[in-house]
Amino acid sequence: MKLEIGSQVGNLLITDIQKKHRGSIAACTCSCGSVITIPLSKLITTDKRGATGGCGRRECNRRFKNTSGPATRINKGYREICVDRKWKLEHRLVLEQHLGRKLQTMEHVHHINGSRVDNRGENLEIASSSAHSRLHKDIWLELIKLRNDNNRLRSAG
């Protein structure tokens, strides 16, 4: 996605871009009407993580709760939805709806493809705390193995 004046990133419309010695700064207008400035690098990161790209003000989330569906935000990479004035993890809500029951506190939700914002029912599975830890340990060990193989191949070639 090329970011330029007039580009829309979530709820933000880029109105001006200024080059600074430490990077570019974007002046943006949120769909709630507020004007913010944000480093262009943060705007790109926010967009790629799947955030709504709003101004971040509580009033913005409250104002758009009833007009454009529920307010959403990204917290530690996970999408959250405002339900009855409380933030709920979207992946838990999706799996509860998919199963037709509420999840218990000790039931963890695992994203099969590893993407925290991909909350399709077929990408989610229930795991106990210990099983979920084992899943992520296996993934982490595989990543370390791949990095070691990559380093070995680079030094050999």
Description of the molecule:
- The longest helix has 28 residues, at 129-156.
- The protein has two domains: 1-51, no CATH class; 90-157, no CATH class.
- Residues 45-52 and 62-68 have low confidence and may be disordered.
- A hairpin with a 2-residue loop joins strand 5 (72-75) and strand 6 (78-83).
- Strands 1-2-3-4 form a four-stranded antiparallel sheet, covered by helices on one side. Strands 5-6-7 form a three-stranded antiparallel sheet. It has a two-stranded antiparallel sheet with strand order 8-9.
- It is of the alpha+beta class and 157 residues long.
- The chain is built from four helices and nine strands, in the order ββββααβββαββα.
- Helices cover 35% and strands 29% of the residues.
